[in-house]
C-alpha cells in the first residue's frame, strides 16, 4: 500500500512533498489547518493528473484537544506513512515570548506529533513497510538565538525519533527526521533581502534550499528498500551549519 498523510501539506515544503509523492504513485491525505483553498486546489490538481490514486483533504488543528484530534484521525482510511511537515516559530527573545506562545510552539512542533504517532501506531504496524518522517531543522542541533524554543522543539523531534525508532525497528516501521537549513519558503518572508543574501553567502552550496530538495529525501526514505535506515536525523543544509 502507498497511502500517506502529510501534515502541513499546504506549506511551502509540504506542497513540494505532496507533488513529489503524488507523482511517485502515492495516494494522499492533504492536511491543512487554515488554508482550505490551497488544500482543495492540490486535491483537484492531483485527482485530475493521477486519476488512479486517491486524494483527500483533512482539516485538523494541532491546537485542538487530543480528543478532537483523535476523533478526526479515527475516520481516515489506513495509511502506512506519516509525514509531519507542519511547524511554527516565533522570532523573538525568550523574555519577550509569553507562556502561551511557548506552549503553542511546543504543542504544534513536538507534543501533538508525538501523541498522533502514539494514537496511529497500531495502524502503521499492520503493514510491512511503514514510515514516519518528521521535518526538523538544523537548529535542532545547532540552536538559533531568537528561536530558542523553536530549536528546542526541533531538537526534541530528533531525540524522540532516535528512541522510538528502537521500539519499532523490528516491525519495519522506520522513524527519521529530515532537518533542512534555510529553505526558500514564505516562512522566511519575515527577513529582508539583505538578510537572506547574507545567509546565502554563508551556505557553501551558494543558495537556499528549495522544497524539492527536501521532497527528494522524503521520497527516498519512503522506499521499501529504506527499511534499514531508522532513528536518524538527515541534515539538508548545503553544508551550512552541520
TrEMBL record:
<dbReference type="GO" id="GO:0004316">
    <property type="term" value="F:3-oxoacyl-[acyl-carrier-protein] reductase (NADPH) activity"/>
</dbReference>
<dbReference type="GO" id="GO:0032787">
    <property type="term" value="P:monocarboxylic acid metabolic process"/>
</dbReference>
<dbReference type="InterPro" id="IPR036291">
    <property type="entry name" value="NAD(P)-bd_dom_sf"/>
</dbReference>
<dbReference type="Pfam" id="PF13561">
    <property type="entry name" value="adh_short_C2"/>
</dbReference>
<comment type="similarity">
    <text>Belongs to the short-chain dehydrogenases/reductases (SDR) family.</text>
</comment>
<dbReference type="InterPro" id="IPR002347">
    <property type="entry name" value="SDR_fam"/>
</dbReference>
<dbReference type="InterPro" id="IPR050259">
    <property type="entry name" value="SDR"/>
</dbReference>
<dbReference type="InterPro" id="IPR020904">
    <property type="entry name" value="Sc_DH/Rdtase_CS"/>
</dbReference>
<protein>
    <submittedName>
        <fullName>3-oxoacyl-[acyl-carrier-protein] reductase</fullName>
        <ecNumber>1.1.1.100</ecNumber>
    </submittedName>
</protein>
<keyword id="KW-0560">Oxidoreductase</keyword>
Amino acid at each position: 500500500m502507498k497511502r500517506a498523510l502529510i501534515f502541513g501539506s499546504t506549506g511551502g515544503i509540504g506542497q513540494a512533498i505532496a507533488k513529489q509523492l503524488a507523482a511517485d504513485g502515492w495516494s494522499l491525505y492533504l492536511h491543512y489547518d487554515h488554508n482550505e483553498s490551497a488544500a482543495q486546489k492540490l486535491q483537484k490538481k492531483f485527482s485530475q493528473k493521477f486519476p488512479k490514486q486517491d486524494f483527500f483533504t483533512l482539516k485538523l488543528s494541532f491546537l485542538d484537544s487530543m480528543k478532537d484530534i483523535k476523533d478526526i484521525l479515527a475516520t481516515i482510511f489506513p495509511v502506512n506513512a506519516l509525514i509531519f511537515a507542519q511547524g511554527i516559530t516565533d522570532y523573538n527573545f525568550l523574555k519577550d515570548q509569553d507562556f502561551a506562545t511557548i506552549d503553542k510552539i511546543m504543542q504544534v512542533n513536538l507534543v501533538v506529533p508525538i501523541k498522533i504517532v502514539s494514537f496511529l501506531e497500531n495502524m502503521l504496524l499492520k503493514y510491512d513497510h511503514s514510515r514516519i518522517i518528521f521535518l526538523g531543522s538544523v537548529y535542532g542541533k545547532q540552536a538559533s538565538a531568537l528561536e530558542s524554543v523553536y530549536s528546542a522543539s526541533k531538537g526534541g523531534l530528533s531525540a524522540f525519533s532516535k528512541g522510538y525508532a528502537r521500539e519499532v525497528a523490528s516491525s519495519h516501521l522506520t522513524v527519521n527526521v529530515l532537518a533542512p537549513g534555510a529553505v526558500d519558503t514564505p516562512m522566511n518572508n519575515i527577513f529582508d533581502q539583505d538578510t537572506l543574501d547574507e545567509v546565502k553567502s554563508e551556505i557553501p552550496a551558494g543558495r537556499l534550499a528549495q522544497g524539492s530538495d527536501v521532497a527528494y529525501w522524503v521520497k527516498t526514505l519512503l522506499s521499501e528498500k529504506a527499511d534499514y535506515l531508522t532513528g536518524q536525523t538527515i541534515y539538508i543544509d548545503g553544508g551550512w551549519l552541520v
